[in-house]
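testing teh design pipeline on a random one, pls ignore if ur not involved
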């Protein structure tokens, strides 16, 4: 009986202490930040999403490749890409080509900005590549022997010129052609897929320097420059084709009569000066 009453007294004392503490001590609350909101450090963490989205790895999309995030089994070899896999340009926009014959380089422009550059062979000094702005008017995969695996034909009016492959890769980087632009076969195959018909092609690097004595039968950029100046003066209404034909010859003769020069139909230094093509 004495033990049971002693235990009862102990429980009553403990309850009295707890009651006194709840009255005397303030309640513990989260520390408030300015403005009356709970301090961020006291905020509970946000709940984790049920299905968190895992960002895709960079590289080739899809499953099975090293860039897909999948781990290969121990001792397994990574997949080997097929040989000569085509290169896909990352940029989008209008395509144009610039051939710099001085540097012997061809640059692909995409959206007006350089995207890729390759070494090329250009025309020899006596058979220069046609300077000017042209267009791709023909595409062919079997143009002929010696022209490699691809052909991009240009609309040069006085001859057949194009950008093509070669069976002489050692000539790349030199002045070695009859006026065409040569590329390594693997390079022209890559370029061929990107270039649609109508693509503009600038050929620069060898400025036209009139001075050659022009006679009927000549062709080239200097003939074209003469035709343009004759047209500006109202003496020539034929095609601007860079071919010194009968129409161009007649226009030169009229110019020579106007300026009381010997009427020969030949473009010499005096004719170039009258046309403003020489100082």
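output:
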């Amino acid at each position: 009986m004495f033990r049971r009453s002693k235990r009862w007294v102990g429980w009553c004392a403990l309850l009295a202490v707890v009651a006194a503490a709840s009255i005397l001590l303030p309640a513990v609350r989260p520390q408030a930040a300015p403005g009356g909101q709970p301090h961020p450090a006291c905020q509970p963490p946000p709940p984790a999403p049920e299905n968190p989205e895992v960002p895709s790895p960079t590289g080739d999309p899809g499953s099975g490749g090293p860039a897909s995030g999948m781990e290969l089994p121990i001792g397994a070899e990574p997949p080997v890409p097929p040989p000569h896999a085509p290169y896909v340009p990352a940029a989008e926009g209008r395509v144009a080509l610039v051939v710099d014959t001085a540097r012997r380089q061809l640059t692909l422009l995409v959206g007006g900005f350089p995207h890729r550059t390759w070494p090329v062979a250009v025309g020899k000094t006596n058979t220069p590549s046609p300077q000017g702005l042209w267009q791709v008017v023909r595409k062919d995969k079997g143009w002929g022997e010696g022209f490699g695996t691809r052909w991009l034909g240009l609309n040069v009016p006085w001859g057949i010129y194009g950008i093509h492959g070669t069976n002489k890769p050692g000539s790349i980087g030199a002045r070695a052609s009859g006026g065409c632009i040569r590329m390594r076969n693997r390079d022209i195959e890559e370029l061929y897929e990107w270039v649609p018909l109508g693509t503009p092609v600038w050929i620069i690097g060898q400025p036209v320097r009139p001075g050659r004595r022009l006679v009927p039968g000549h062709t080239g950029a200097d003939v074209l420059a003469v035709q343009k100046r004759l047209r500006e003066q109202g003496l020539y209404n034929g095609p601007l084709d860079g071919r010194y034909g009968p129409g161009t010859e007649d226009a030169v003769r009229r110019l020579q009569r106007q300026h009381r020069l010997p009427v020969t139909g030949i473009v010499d230094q005096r004719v170039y000066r009258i046309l403003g093509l020489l100082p």
